[in-house]
Amino acid sequence: MGSKSASVRAVIARYVTLWPRNTFAVGARPTLGALENGGRGGAGRRFFSCTTASMPNERPVAKQTISLRSLLYHAIQAAELGGLEVRAVRDSGDLGTRSKSICFNPVTLGDQRSHLAMKGTLKQAFPFLTVISEEDDHCLNSVVVELDAANQVAPSCPPLAFRALVPADEVVSVRDVTVWIDPLDGTQEFTDGQYDYVTTMVGIAVKGKPVAGVIHLPFSAGETYWAWNGHGISPSLRSLKAHSREADQRSSQIIRLAMSKNPFRAGTILRFARKAFEDQEFELVPMGGAGYKFVQMLLGNVDAYLHVTRNIKKWDTCAGHGIVSSLHGRVTGLQGEEMDYTAPEDYKQDCSIQTGFIGALRDHDSLLTGCRRAG
User: Fold this and answer.
1) Strand ranges (DSSP E) for 250-291?
2) How far is CA 178 from CA 13, 48, 129, 196, 365, in A?
3) Average confidence score pLDDT of the chain
4) How far apart are CA 281 and CA 349, in angstroms?
5) Would you give the DSSP letter of residue 158?
6) Using the 8-state DSSP alphabet, how is residue 221 labeled?
């Protein structure tokens, strides 16, 4: 046990210093004893390792409910805390990059530490909430993040300023809610130093339908975009809505489509777009990161987001889908299929979106007609 204890203590000493000091962090480092005692320290402190934060989702009792306003507030907290972890790893100079599979699919310490901060925040507030993260199976148990439960706002009472932005609440059965998180969207770009493409995301679905989303850009002035369908949107999106009305009046006839910047997919996307929009002028705009593409659509820099292959997951799309739906846009499969975000029985097998998709804030129906033709 002695050598194991020394090894774990060394890893903790290295990684816990990456956690920035703020109202959710405690300066003292966790001890091995605290980790071995279920991850609990003194004075409301909790230490999240990949074992505690990736715990199986326990099914709640039938009568347990959840406030969606409180969940949204904690989702915003989670995305922003994850962003702090991503920035801290970048600033440390050691990304700790390794591959998830034989075909190089990178995962970094930024992915893992953000995963712990985000899922830990949500699980600390709502222990029985179903939270599915991209990094549930790709996190090293040696990585530890400390959260301060004593300083966290109680789930039942978000701050007054937030309640002013979201005046009405909605309470639903916690069994009906699935949260999809992407702790670091744009990992390849992160390893390449293209930080503007990086986002942290939380998507909230009720009975399979995306009702709210949060997208945080840790390297773009720390901006966070969020929306809950029929209840409220972030101040940054309110200003964008006014801007989008002006853009509608002067919009060009060229359809600008966000697409993957992966050169191996470019030919497939171009062939599809030529069939789908043969009677219209279009421009394909390569970008990294699903979250970044959704944000560029919100900003009006592109008209739609087109994805034609099956390599994307629901944690890549749920947050953006929730925001677009809240702004009266649509995201559907390329043949008009509705995307279901219900927690799958085996999430390892059932998280892919098999249909491709087209998302737009305006004119989705006409775009979908073309996609069906290209089918």
Assistant:
1) 255-260, 282-287
2) 34, 21, 7, 28, 28
3) 81
4) 38
5) -
6) T
